[in-house]
Amino acid sequence: MIKKILILQFWLFFIFCSYLSLTSAPPEALHDYSDKLLHATGYCALFLSCHIAYRQQSSWYQRAGLLLSYSLAIEIAQHFIPHRGFSLADMLANAIGLLFGFLFSKLAEKTGLFSALGERRSTV
Which among 53, 43, 51, 45 is positioned nearest to 21, based on CA atoms? Predict the structure, then answer.
């Protein structure tokens, strides 16, 4: 049961991130923050969410690769959305966020934080 909840939390967060990325006018509250900081933070959280949900089924580089591909797809899609556009700087911020997500996941595993989820620690 807990595994299904962990997978559900990832997909709900993924849908939420997709909505924010593909809407032509992001929520007004987001305009007060640095765009690149939001990108990095969002992709860090997305990696951690994916890692928690799928750490037993895939390696970290598979998760990072898929999320980086998703990031590219979102940037390409934004080219066709009014008031949005493709940005290499956004891609870089997303990649930095994925890197920090990876580093945080390794730290969490070393400290046993994920053991609270009732699963064994990942070795990859």
Answer: 43
